[in-house]
Amino acid sequence: MATRKPIVYINGYPGELDIASDRLNTPWIYRSGTAPTAQEADIWYDTGAGILKMWNGSGWDNIDTKNAVYVQASAPGSGMSQGDWWYNTTTTGFSMYLAGSINQWTTVTSGSGGGGGSISDILAYG
Question: Can you say whether the dihedral through the CA atoms of 51, 52, 56, 57 is positive or negative?
Fold first, then answer.
């Protein structure tokens, strides 16, 4: 059976989303010791340096953050702050802690196929 791509409507007509368009406006998150091939706004947790970075279109910028990055199998249950990151070593997914009225870990779309939210939604939150 052939692999089908998502159907989108362009100018009122249905068509399959081409593979190049799959990445449009969808930053990915990577976790590795070596830099991945990336597109603008992709995020990479450099396991060798322990630093979160973002691709600017021509190179990796360190994300200047005072937030913690947790790397463990279960979600941290205390001591979290708005914007903290958690890499789940069991599911290989990333989540960001959203404080305020939400007070929970929110899954972020990742390059390894996990995720449930979008980076745009989380960054728009504040």
Answer: positive
